[in-house]
Amino acid sequence: MDCINFNNLDLDVIDKISNIIIAFLTLIFTIYIFVFTTRKGNAQLAKDRKTDSLKTIILEHNLKNLFSFYENILITMAPLASRKHSDFDKQELNNQLQNDLKDLRLRFTDLLLAVDGNLYENVKKCSDVLIDILTEKMFEENINLQNKSDYDNNIIGSISQSKTEIIKILYEYNS
Questions:
Q1: Which residues fall within 8 angstroms of residue 158, CB to CB, at 6 or more apart?
Q2: If you ran DSSP here, which 8-state letter would residue 87 be given?
Q3: CATH number of the domain at 50-174, please?
Q4: Where are the domains of the chain?
Q5: Quick one: which of 165, 159, 157 has its CA closest to 76?
């Protein structure tokens, strides 16, 4: 049986080479961890900066325009609860809703485009859908808006749901 005979010098060389390899791998692993955590930190920092910009530039100064939009819609739709209106009167109310929507876009929604295109589209879609729903409900012959429960369910409920949805969209963007 052949037996390999290592002397102390050979074992010492093998020990030093293995220590060098371990040190080299440790160095590479350390560099990898550093680069990975730095990139992750930079991505989080960019997201935080974007969120802070949204809060500071847009929401703090212009969120009142969003709430004003919903108040104006409630005021515009209020006459429907008191008496039956002609189609001409309803068209005038619908024109006012369209003007309120344009005003919201100019004062609030368009500003979101500077922050995030998807955020802008989601808020715009939600407000557009509200005006479409209100228009449909206003001209629907089967709905008696002079009845308080019908008015509350169809008009107030739709407005409240839209307002909640937009606030949810804004909150989820900040999360």
A1: 130, 133, 134, 137
A2: H
A3: 1.20.120
A4: 50-174
A5: 159
pLDDT tier, 1 (very low <50, low <70, confident <90, very high otherwise):
very low
Q: What is the DSSP string of 32-73?
A: HHHHHHHHHHHHHHHHHHHHHHIIIIIIHHHHHHHHHHHHHH
Return all residues near 70 (Cβ < 8 A) that are at least 6 apart.
159, 162, 163
Query: Please, what is the Cα angle at 31 between 26 and 37, to 5 degrees?
Result: 125
- Looking at residue 95, its amino acid is N
Is the model more confident about 10 or about 119?
119
Residue (of 76, 61, 172, 39) closest to 107 by Cα position: 61
> Any residues with CB less than 8 A from the CB of 74 and at least 6 apart, and which?
156, 159
Longest alpha-carbon distance in the chain: 111
Whole-angstrom Cα distance, residue 15 to residue 24?
14
29-83 pLDDT tens trace: 888 888 887 777 666 777 777 667 667 667 777 889 999 999 999 999 999 998 8
Tokens of 113: 């485009």
